[in-house]
Amino acid sequence: MDRLLQLNTIFISIVIEAVPFIVVGALVSALIEVFVSEDTIVRIMPKNRFLSVITASLIGALFPGCECGIVPIASRLIKKGLPLSSAISFMLSAPIINPIVLFATFIAFGDSWKMVWYRAGLAIGVSILVGFILSFFVKESQLKINHDEHVHDHSHQNTKQKLISVITHTIDEFLSVGKFLVMGSLIASAMQVYIPTNILVTLGHTKVTASLIMMALAFILSICSEADAFVASSFRNSFAQSSIVAFLVFGAMVDIKNLLMMFGSFKPKFVILLVSLISSLVFIGSLLL
Fold first, then answer.
1. Nearest 5°: CA angle at 118, between 116 and 121?
2. Phi and psi at residue 143, to the nearest 5°
3. Is the pLDDT confidence value at 150 over 60?
4. What is the spatial distance between Cα 76 and Cα 74, in angstroms, rounded to a whole number?
5. Which residue in 42, 78, 86, 139 has its CB near the most CB atoms, within 10 A?
6. Residue 162: exposed, middle, or buried by beta-carbon count in 10 A (0-12, 13-18, 19+)?
7. Contact status, residue 93 vs residue 130, Cβ threshold 8 Å
8. Distance from CA of residue 215 to its chain's centroid?
9. What is the pLDDT of residues 266-288, one digit of tens each?
10. How many CB atoms lie within 10 A of CB 176?
11. What CA–CA distances, in Å, run from 42 to 23, 78, 80, 87?
12. How far apart are CA 13 and CA 3, in angstroms?
């Protein structure tokens, strides 16, 4: 009974923490749908695929959100004509290098910029490398085909009609993503209750195992990137700095919540490839720190 109460408490806290960012993500996605044309996307992004990936990764600094709401934004950009490789680079970097997350990291680690630079640097490096690799080996959009989804032309609408369209798209996007948030939060809370973290801590004696354990822990805990630095800082006396950086980067790119959202938006084989690339690069990057 106590464990069920604990599970319920953790589940509610994860959902309450994530919902505002889901709303922000859905709203941004809707604004992109209504106000940003395909021509605008094509005009802004560099034609060179490498420059396009780099630009998309750095643009993530302008979006104050976390991983909870980034998947619908990325999928919307792909539908608007942004190359898959660039959209994925944006999706991976935005939850980490935006000012809110970096400031939270700065505060969590005792007003130290060192962990901020490590986190931002590894995140940008991984997002760009993943984008480069995808640009060579994946040519199609990889979005799931939704036969119920229709393409709308909003160019003829007046301001009032566009605002109504934004509200409608926001609600639809929120309901679409929300079910994955609920399922992911339930799984994450159950794993937190029934898998003792002290077991993981005892396994992290070497640099290699410490990074692997902290990446697994980041996935299990599924904490929003605005708050994960405060949890990560509590492990400073138990784990090496490199493994904590792995926790901060991997968890913001792949956790239970956004993994289910990715499976909801992208083809399964592509999601498996993407998660494999992220896992490998974050792990190798953490060992190099």
1. 100
2. -75, 145
3. no
4. 5
5. 86
6. middle
7. no
8. 14
9. 999 999 999 999 999 999 999 99
10. 18
11. 26, 11, 9, 13
12. 15
φ/ψ (deg, to 5) at 266: -115, 165
Q: Three-state SS for 266?
A: strand
Domain ranges of the chain: 2-288
The reported pLDDT for the residue numbered 148 is 47
Q: 235 CB contacts (<8 Å, ≥6 apart)? A: 201, 214, 244, 247
| Statement: residue 189 has pLDDT above 70 | yes
Nearest alpha-carbon partner for 104 in 197, 231, 218: 231
pTM assigned to the model: 0.81
Confidence check: pLDDT of 1 > 80: no
CA max distance for the chain: 62
Taking CA atoms, 59 is separated from 34, 64, 255, 258, 266, in Å, by 20, 11, 22, 20, 22
Q: How far apart are CA 239 and CA 206, in angstroms?
A: 9
What would the pLDDT profile of 19-46 be if each residue is shown by its tens digit? 887 787 778 878 877 887 656 776 788 9
